[in-house]
Design brief:
By secondary structure, the protein is mainly β. It contains two helices and eleven strands.
Length: about 120
């Protein structure tokens, strides 16, 4: 099982096809999860079976933990959703970005633009 993210007051968010961006540049932790204080960015790719959780409780858990940037990639709508500036357990939501357009994260802790030209639709 892939490492999860330890969120205070919540069970660990477990994912299999992602790795959070940690400011310290460390490898996956031996204890089986990253601590929320060490994570600067998380990207989630939606699947039909997890969409409700990814857009709801999991997003809220990341915000409550203070993860600075959450990117949700949705192959069913063809949109990327950037969530930033977590305050009081909620994110500020930027307008959706269509697959094919760059996701501009240059003004965040991530500091880059993500090319989505080859993102596939379901």
């Amino acid at each position: 099982m892939a490492p999860g993210l330890g969120v205070p007051g919540r069970r660990a968010c477990r994912c299999t096809a992602w790795a959070p961006l940690c400011g310290t540049g460390e490898e996956a932790p031996a204890k089986g999860r990253w601590e929320h204080q060490d994570v600067d960015f998380v990207a989630e790719v939606i699947s039909q079976g997890t969409a409700r959780n990814d857009y709801g409780p999991k997003k809220d858990a990341y915000a409550a933990a203070g993860v600075p940037v959450l990117l949700i990639v949705d192959p069913y709508t063809g949109l990327c959703h950037v969530h930033t500036d977590p305050q009081d357990g909620a994110y500020r939501l930027e307008p959706g970005v269509k697959f094919g357009d760059p996701v501009d994260l240059t003004d965040t802790v991530v500091g880059l633009a993500l090319d989505t030209a080859e993102f596939g639709r379901e």
